[in-house]
Amino acid sequence: MLLGACSPGKRDYSRWENLPVEGWAYGDTVSLVPVDTSLRDNDSIVTAALRVALRHSNDYPYSNIWLEVTYRGDGFLTRDTLNVVLADIYGRWLGSGFGASYQKEMLLNPAAVIDITRPVEVRHIMRLDTLHGVDQIGVLVDTSSGIDR
Predict the structure, then answer these.
(1) Tens digit of pLDDT for each residue in 128-137?
(2) d(CA 47, CA 50)
(3) What DSSP state is assigned to residue 100?
């Protein structure tokens, strides 16, 4: 039992970015590097569950958001489209939170091969110029579900 407690554990990485108060413009890509690259003991290429998360307010006018997510792996580039459902058919928010702020996470890839020292790029692909009501966007890398490479 003691040996299990002393073994090196898996790491989880995340990065969040505040979006402009005046709204998230259609052409604005948010670049999020999951790991602090100033640290010297980081892994580079990992196989992990990759999640995209966002925080929104009651002011968000839609029940979903379409995102385009691009990340780099072991010598390749992956681009995925993700439909994040934020509300049920009755307009009730599905994310966790209280008051006027909600957080919703969505699994993008359960076993992504990802270079966590390179940016994960996220942009909305809704059919309007500026999206209001989204406060933050984030990426979460969970290495406990994958295998380090």
Answers:
(1) 999 999 999 9
(2) 9
(3) T
Q: Which two tokens stand for residue 45?
A: 């290429």
Instruction: List pLDDT tens digits, range 51-108.
Output: 999 999 999 999 999 999 999 987 889 999 999 999 999 999 998 987 789 999 999 9
Pairwise CA distance, residues 71 & 76, whole Å: 9
Amino acid at the residue 77? L
For 3-146, list the strands marked E by DSSP.
Answer: 12-18, 24-25, 30-32, 45-57, 64-72, 77-85, 96-98, 101-115, 120-124, 130-131, 134-142
Distance CA 143, CA 148 (A): 7
Residues 88, 105: Cα–Cα separation, whole Å: 15
